[in-house]
Amino acid sequence: MRTFGKSTGLGMVLGLSLLLAGCSLQQSVNGTQDATAQQNAVAAGAAANATTSTDSQSTPSSSVVLEKKPTKIAVVSEYTDDEWSAQFLSGIRATASAFGATLITTDAQHNREQMVSQLDAVIQQKPNVIIVNHGDADALKPEVEKAIAQGIKVITSDVTINVPGLTSQLGQDDYDLALLSIEKMAEDINGQGNIVVIWVGGYAPMDKRMKILKVMESEYPDIHVVAQFGDATNTTISDTMSRMEAVLRAHPNDIKAVWASWDQFALGAEQAIQALHRTVPVYSIDLSTQDVAKMRQSGSTWMASAGTDVYQYGVVATRFAVAAAYDQPVPRYYLLPGALMTKDNAPTNESIHAWFEKAYPDQNNIGLTPALQSLLKH
Which domains does the chain possess? Predict the structure, then answer.
């Protein structure tokens, strides 16, 4: 059993993370979202106002009119078998089509060695830009360095690969998403009781989310982690369901909540809870249409999930890729804003994308510089 201990140093610990500077446990969801939006607005503004070199002269990107050229973008993914990936790739495909770019996609089906091989094969096809989606940073690093050495622009998505010459590191604000979901759970269970944590390490988003759980442990002395498990495979949901059922049987009456660091974990946990006719609430991270439908079902105990507009994530990644292919400025780091969706505010007759458009009216303009708009006019 792991017990949450009390500490007065939360603000200082959170301050070590630039992304969470100034956050407090009582900060409102809107305030957290506004802070993230402001950070990203700075990055987007820098990209829009940056200069690009043409014939040794600097010209503001706002006045650049680009002429279309053959553009090839590759997306190398660790896996694509969940709805999150489907939404991400849908945004990529729609945006690549709008800009007339040729798209190459690969799927390693959760095999990290295969992902490295697929990245190597993609490099041989000489795309203008490669989007590396998830994966093992250490294993991918040599291939990323090889691509950059050959003049291929590389953008990473939800994986941190620190190499010189990387074009952009794009992601969700996983610190903020974890904070939103954990705070909601703690509020709902009145800061006390036994909880189950479903998590797996070795993935950049997961590792960031766990850091916030570790920080939050110091805030709630009466919340205890009685079980922790998790694995990411092509059978994650069914595996999680089986393991969650075992935990529920071992703790028939004393689990107050489940915190799932990934929506695939939440799906499995929720199925186990329903199968055993329990009423344990579930809190998670990431959002998909399937998640929303489950959350809104009568009798569902899935209470909330924090996430981003993944379709828009794919759109932004592709806009950055197109900009890079045309030697336009791209933010070196960018985080998509997130929000907390609850059982009460989950959409009924609109898409997640439409729901996020209401939360962030300006999100459709992220990365769409005047230079890129000139391409869409052709």
Answer: 2-9+174-308 (3.40.50.2300), 60-172+309-339+365-376 (3.40.50.2300)
Statement: residue 53 has pLDDT above 70: no
Asked if 216 and 187 count as a contact pair (C-beta separation under 8 A), the reply is: no
Residue among 324, 334, 279 nearest 303 (CA): 279
Tell me the percentage of the chain whose pLDDT exceeds 90. Answer: 72
CA distance 125 to 65: 28
The pTM score is 0.79
Q: What is the pLDDT of residue 16?
A: 39
* Radius of gyration, alpha carbons of the chain: 21
Helix (H, G, I), strand (E, B) or coil at 225: strand
The residues, any chain, with a CB within 8 Å of residue 130's CB and separated by 6 or more, are: 73, 74, 75, 76, 119, 122, 123, 147, 152, 153, 154, 155
**What is the arithmetic mean of pLDDT over 279-294?**
93
The strand pair at 302-308 and 338-342 is best described as antiparallel
Report yes or no: 270 and 256 within 8 Å, Cβ to Cβ.
no
Please state, in angstroms and rounded to a whole number, the distance separating the CA atoms of residues 195 and 6: 17
